[in-house]
Automatic annotation (TrEMBL):
InterPro entries assigned: Znf_CCHC, Znf_CCHC_sf
Stated name of the protein: CCHC-type domain-containing protein
Amino acid composition bias (Basic and acidic residues), ranges on this chain: 27-97
Alphabetical UniProt keywords: Metal-binding, Zinc, Zinc-finger
Gene Ontology MF term list: nucleic acid binding; zinc ion binding
Residue ranges, compositional bias (Polar residues): 103-114
Length: 263
């Protein structure tokens, strides 16, 4: 009996130890889960801190950009102020120069010297005009005298005798013949050559041009033809423009007659 009692006691002690071990294991498991949850919370907090740091860095960059723009704007304001100061300085210098000019000219205008100068200039211009008129009158008188002397010499058939022995006879000045430029001669030669070579486009004769043709002024000549070299044959009863053959240097035109309505 005693031995059985001892066994039961040992078994009960073992059962108690087993319960304690189970409680320890259960506590350790709960602690492990709590530690994992704590670690998760720490990781989330770290991520939140990193995101917060990123936001702070972005704000810092924006702040730096704003400061840079503000500094540039201040520099622009300084440059603008310098430009305005230079402009005001230039305007003041221009005003000073204008005042100096006005002060230099104002005594003349106040004393009336400018008006006197204008009057003097007008009188000088009038004198110059009178001198020119006198010179022109003298030139015309000299020309008339020369013409009269030339006419007298031509009618008498001899040179005018000098009044004194020591003087030379006054012969009228010789007027040089007006030279015809070579261009006009060339034009006349080319015109005569064209007269002999080409002739009239209307009647076919070689003695004149088409603009000098008698048919231009002839009565009942009829309306003008369309092509050069055609003649209006209204006298023959056909009342149409017909091309004449045998005209030299003519371009090849259509040979079909062009009928015109009777007017």
């Amino acid at each position: 009996m005693e031995e059985r009692g001892r066994r039961e006691e040992a078994l009960s002690r073992r059962m108690e130890e087993l319960h304690r071990l189970e409680e320890l294991i259960r506590g350790m498991e709960e602690r492990r889960k709590a530690d994992e949850a704590h670690n998760d919370i720490i990781e989330k907090r770290q991520k939140a801190d990193e995101a917060h740091n990123d936001i702070i860095a972005e704000r810092q960059r924006e702040e730096d950009k704003y400061q840079q723009l503000l500094a540039e704007r201040r520099q622009e304001d300084v440059r603008f102020q310098d430009m305005m100061a230079d402009r005001q300085r230039r305007e003041q210098e221009e005003q000073r120069t204008q005042r100096k000019r006005w002060t230099n000219y104002s005594p003349d205008y106040s004393n009336g010297q400018g008006d006197e100068n204008d009057e003097e200039m007008k009188t000088l211009q009038l004198k110059l005009r009178l001198l020119k008129m006198e010179i022109a009158e003298k030139d015309t008188e000299a020309i008339k005298n020369k013409k009269a002397a030339r006419q007298m010499a031509a009618t008498s058939g001899r040179a005018i005798e000098p009044e004194k022995a020591g003087q030379t006879p006054q012969t009228p000045p010789t007027i040089q013949a007006r030279e015809v430029p070579e261009i006009q001669v060339q034009n006349q030669q080319s015109r005569s050559r064209r007269r002999t070579d080409e002739g009239c486009y209307k009647c076919g004769q070689l003695t004149h041009w088409s603009r000098e043709c008698p048919q231009n002024i002839a009565p009942n000549n009829g309306p003008p033809c369309r092509y050069p070299g055609e003649v209006y044959d209204g006298d023959r009863g056909s009342q149409r423009c017909q091309r004449r053959t045998g005209v030299p240097n003519m371009t090849h035109m259509p040979l079909t007659p062009w009928y015109q309505p009777q007017q």
